[in-house]
Write a sequence for this structure.
């Protein structure tokens, strides 16, 4: 899905798109797809990610199936505002790792006429809304929730269940630390412990 806001070009403003869901659901894949299409359309695109996310590459956003796009790692959302203010499209991956100021930054960019495409986990490993994502979803014009498939049940998976022993809110990891599971599995395995 490529979203184009085409109602009144003379008074065109920017907008926000949020892509959310569990781990292994294709959030980053969809972010990359949308940003590549904007690049193909000749738009000036910049992509940002939290500096702490170095799972695949320091200066690339990389999906689980190894699609990648160049990105700029940043420590704080204010850097995005500074570096992305002259773009047509700003992409932000792993937005759940930023503090709440990402909401204000994304809205300022959109208010200045920029299309802002944001991807992030909507729930943490305990099934609670994660960081700024709920507020980003509330202020976005478009929200896409993607799902993984639960390997245990074959149903849609919308929970990122931690299978490691860490209790830290943020633990960077892949299949060694997390499993995408359905509601039933999450309730049986996590909530009933």
């Amino acid at each position: 899905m490529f979203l184009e806001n085409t109602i009144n070009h003379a008074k065109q403003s920017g907008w926000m798109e949020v892509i959310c869901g569990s781990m292994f659901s294709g959030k980053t894949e969809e972010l990359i797809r949308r940003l590549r299409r904007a690049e193909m359309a000749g738009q000036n695109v910049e992509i940002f990610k939290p500096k702490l996310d170095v799972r695949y590459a320091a200066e690339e956003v990389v999906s689980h199936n190894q699609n990648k796009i160049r990105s700029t790692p940043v420590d704080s959302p204010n850097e995005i505002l500074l570096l992305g203010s002259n773009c047509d499209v700003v992409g932000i991956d792993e937005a759940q790792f930023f503090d709440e100021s990402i909401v204000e930054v994304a809205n300022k960019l959109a208010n200045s006429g920029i299309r802002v495409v944001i991807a992030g986990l909507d729930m943490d490993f305990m099934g609670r809304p994660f960081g700024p994502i709920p507020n980003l979803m509330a202020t976005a014009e478009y929200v896409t929730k993607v799902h993984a498939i639960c390997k245990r049940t074959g149903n849609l998976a919308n929970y990122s269940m931690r299978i490691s022993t860490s209790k830290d809110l943020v633990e960077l990891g892949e299949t060694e630390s997390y499993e995408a599971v359905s509601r039933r599995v999450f309730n049986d395995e996590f909530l009933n412990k």
Notes: The helical segments are 27-40, 77-84, 101-111, 133-139, 183-191. Residues 15-146 form a domain with the Rossmann fold fold (CATH 3.40.50.300). The two ends are 40 Å apart (CA to CA).
